[in-house]
Model the fold of this input.
Amino acid sequence: MIYILADNITSPLGATTQENLEAVLQGRSALRRYEGLWGIPTAVCASLFSREQTARMAREGMTRFEAFAYCSAREAMSRCKIDVASERTLFVLSTTKGNIELLGTEKEQRISPTEAAEHIARALGFKGEPLTVCNACISGVSAMITAGRLLEAGCYDTAVVTGADVACRFTVSGFQALKAVSEDACRPFDLERLGLNLGEAAATVVLSRKAPEGAPALWAIEAGAVNNDAHHITSPSPRAEGASAALRAVASDDLALINAHGTATMFNDQMESVAIAGCGHGDVPVNALKGYTGHTLGAAGILETVLTAAALERGFILPTKGYSERGVSGRIDIVSALRKTDGRRFVKMISGFGGGNAALSLVRTEAKEEFAEKKVPEFVRTHSVKITPDKVLVDGREIACEGEGLAKLTALYKQYIASYPKYYKMDPLARLGFVASELLLQAEGKERKEEDATRGVVLCNSSSSIMADRAYEATVGAGDNYYPSPSAFIYTLPNIVTGEIALRNGYRGETSFCIMPRKDEALIDRIVGATLLDRRLDSLIAGWIDCTDDTHYEASIYIIESNK
Amino acid sequence: MEELELELKQEIIKVLNLEDMTPDDIETDAPLFGEGLGLDSIDVLEIIVLLEKKYGIKLANPAEGKGIFKSIATIADYVSKNRKK
Done:
């Protein structure tokens, strides 16, 4: 278990967890309908920071995104004592698109989330290098799980985990292209739900294996799990395999509530209801909080966990704003009005593009013990593939290949793989990961299974999805020429490559994408080891996969076998 | 109509990156989803963008498209009746 020493929510509803809780208890929502926003021809309903709030948080030398994240982290850190300068204190940033607003400006080199993470971490006084977790909508929960495991594995003593995203033309147009947004306030789980609203926010938890002396009761993370659906790159599986597996891995039978993702899209809410009812939790109260703050993307998992915990601490289960009549097939108990409870344990669920589903179990507990370290299973690299513009190595041996630049990937596909037309729809990063993983699996030589819950995919880079970002931006347009491409938008989430590999191979284990300042083998190994603390996993496809232009790309990936 | 059908096949091959395919490979009446070309929900969204961009047809709700996106023939029929450009 991992203690939460302090937390913060920074949203248009307030600058602290308590301010946000008070606003929500009063039934306030930050969702507003805007016309003519960012040259987008339709109305946009979103939760946005006001000009005054933005000015209050502004910091010299920081972008809007960085300032929001910084303010959230700083406020949480001011509520507890941690040694921020220690190398054993880690800063983790959870975001989907970070500084994407800088695309096409002169500050564009700062667009990778890891650059933003470094700026924020340095301003907060961290000396060690930060880690960024970028797993689309599940980022916040998956960042807490990853950070918690790194603490359990003894790699660090303390972790500050901050999730943040800003709403802007890039993200709003993308979700519009996917027909996922509603022009009115969202209605999670409701019969008449029409889609989600985006929201700006930052939220933070400070995690530690050790409670401070004399601390009262604290919230602790009991368990976390991530499972891929291996069903489709954006649509959740109607059978909810991934969400059910994650829920089953963490849920006990005395839950005060389940805080669902509840985006208010047709498919997400339906899928969650199937998972919750199917796992036997039909009588557990379920709520969703996006009617207050919108879908805050990289912040969502943390914000909603913290808000749910803060309400429970006061004996409340928060109502699902926007919900009135059940519009999902799973028979679940959706909370529509404030309820009292003396329960002390809940589960946060979340699902996202790339097929990822995560669940996290939290309990209010007396702070006394220091939780023991967990032993990371030994692991070995059994096979390797390295692809660069110069060379393709499989298990260290060079293989022949035609083609120059990125065209080399298609040559490899045609020569060694073929018969997977979806390849042509992928962006360069996903193509690179796909081709490398196929060569790796050929080297392994095992028969392909229909489904495999014992294998996960964990990939890292430093440039995020820069090529896809540029390609998508070129399609957006404005005014009468506003045609954002849905398929191009999807690949602006770098974790999609992990989803593509899971989908191709039926992998239902954890999928995760991390971004770091440089290729740091030691850190990648720590993340791999921490992931293998999930004892359901026997093996991983893991490693480095970066792609910035036609002549700069590298995949160095491995099959990792756990000797658990 | 045949001309429009051919044009739709060419455009769909382009926007959906159906590499190595020619209009001759797509049967006008064959199903586009499942059995036939095996298109998925993202492909539908991309075809919706195409209809809007090229023919000025706005389809706000993808669910409306169920009948429309059965085959090239049904799309061509819908486009010919509803096109604005």
Notes: The first helix of chain A runs from residue 17 to 25. The radius of gyration of chain A is 22 Å. Chain A has a mean pLDDT of 96.
